[in-house]
Amino acid sequence: MAAELDFSPPEIPEPTFMENVLRYGLFFGAIFQLICVLAIILPVSKSHKTVSSFSGLTFHPVPKGPLMQLAQEKVKGKG
Fold it and tell me: Which residue windows are coiled coil (predicted)?
């Protein structure tokens, strides 16, 4: 009965081309995600000059929807 038992390792087939593409794609995707997370966490030195020369300018957002219609009616009423 002991002679009937086969303790040899099972045969593992070679990975196909698509399995290799999937494996390496997941590997590079994980590296890319780690780089993105590190870019968020780690501070970046600000060696370039900020936009302080435009500090006097103010930008107002354009109203949308019903507010835009009200603004246009006010402008028409004044003109």
Answer: none
21/15 Cα distance (integer angstroms): 10
Dihedral over Cα of 4, 5, 9, 11: its sign: positive
Contact at 8 Å (CB) between 8 and 16?
A: no
> Dihedral angle at the C-alpha atoms of 32, 38, 40, 46, nearest 10 degrees?
-110
Record the pTM.
Answer: 0.43
Chain segment 18-61, per-residue pLDDT in tens: 999 999 999 999 999 999 999 999 887 766 555 555 566 676 66
The span from the CA of 37 to the CA of 57, in Å, is 34
In whole angstroms, give the CA distance from residue 68 to residue 74.
10
